[in-house]
Structure formats: structure tokens, C-alpha cells
């Protein structure tokens, strides 16, 4: 069973691929969108869920998304048609680090995709390249809520604590104008929903060739979360402006 299929099924009921509920996503977008006709770019857009919500809420907004996953971009395309926003959305297949647009953006988003750039500060450097004067960045990344186990670092990458993470961002010339730390409920909902949905799919499709593997994957991933990182992983979103341009 390939990773795309696992991810597609697991995120059926949690299309935002990050531990945030719908109200948090709405609030972050509203803080990031500074004008009704904003041009918005999402680096690592996945299924385009952030952009689709921004486009639906703002009829004059235009959006572009970049992702390496054709499967995810295909779903973004289909959903945009269904919502009647396809004419205001451009999707680019390729590496976010190589994306070379011709015009700047009022809001650059990158949530849960910092690995594409090699970390949070390099993600901000890339976002800055694409930012219009006075523009905003909405970035989401992990941090360590508590001392991580070696397995957690191996699995998720080497984050810092919350204060150090924010200090690194401000030292890089950014001012947070809004922030959101995922709640225990958001973090738990995300994991229970993803692995529960995958497990339920397996139970509902016993005759599918992938059914047994899906059930085993859901069980393994749930256990990894509970044993290795539930007690130490946190998730932070920041809406940022340049402190001085
Ligand atoms: C955790 S998902 C987050 C998706 C989306 N931002 C969201 O919050 O729903 C990370 C996304 O980054 C994409 N990705 C990984 N490496 C990438 C790269 N080098 N360039 C562009 N996208 C990349 C993956 O395909 C995936 O869709």
C-alpha cells in the first residue's frame, strides 16, 4: 500500500494535514489575509485545503499552491472545481524550494512542510523571496513541548522548545502578529482521526487487497504516536510580518 493511498484515506475526515481544528485554521487565515484581493501562495499545499478555505471565504482572492504530490494536487483540483473556485487557483507540481514565481504574494503559507526546505528558518527565507512589501507569512511547524526521546527525534526531526523556536524566528527579522499553539485536543484529535479513519476503512473493506496492511499500519502508527511522541510533540503556527524591510 503506497504512502499516498495511506495518507489519502487517513485524512478523509481531517483534510488539513496538521493538528489544527477548523476554527483555528479560519482564525489563522483571517489574521494572515490582509486584503480582500490578496494573492496567496502555499508552499507544500498538499490537497490545497488552506487555499480552498481562503478562496471560499474571499471571492476576490487568488491563490497558488506548490507540491511534489500529483495525487494531492489532483484532489485540490477536484475540490476547487466542486467549490466553484478553480478559476482563481493555480497549482504547480514540483519542489517548493525550486518554485520561481514572477510576481510576489501578499500571504505566503507553509504549514507542516518545513522539511521541504530543511527547517523553519530556511522555510522563512524561501517565503521571504516570494513576499510582497508589507506581506505576511503563515508558517506551521513542530516544537518540543517536553524533552523528546531519541525515537521522537528520529521520527519527527530535531525541533527546539517553544520559546527558542519563537526566538529563532524573531532573530531572523520577523515579528509574530498572531500565533497559535495546538491544544492537547487538536493534537489528539488529529492522531485519533487519521489512524481511526484508516483502521475503519480496513474493517469496512475486508476484501480489498490492502485491507490487512492498512489495519496493521493504523495500529503501528497509533502506537508510535502514543509511545514515542504524544508527550513531547507540540505544533505552532505563526502569522509573521517583517520587522523591518
Ligand atoms: C504534512 S503535509 C501538509 C499539507 C498542507 N500544508 C496542510 O497543512 O494540509 C506536507 C506536504 O508537503 C509536501 N512536500 C514534501 N516535500 C515537498 C517539497 N520538496 N516541495 C513541495 N512540497 C513538498 C507533501 O507532498 C505534503 O503534501
Automatic annotation (TrEMBL):
One annotated GO molecular function: methyltransferase activity
Annotated ranges, domain Methyltransferase type: 41-137
Tell me the keywords, alphabetical order. Answer: Methyltransferase, Transferase
Q: Which InterPro entries match?
A: CFA/CMAS (IPR050723), Methyltransf_12 (IPR013217), SAM-dependent_MTases_sf (IPR029063)
Q: Which Pfam families match?
A: Methyltransf_12
GO terms for biological process, alphabetical: methylation
The name on file for this protein is: SAM-dependent methyltransferase
Instruction: Give the organism the record lists.
Output: Streptomyces varsoviensis
Q: In the record, what lineage is assigned to the organism producing the protein?
A: Bacteria, Bacillati, Actinomycetota, Actinomycetes, Kitasatosporales
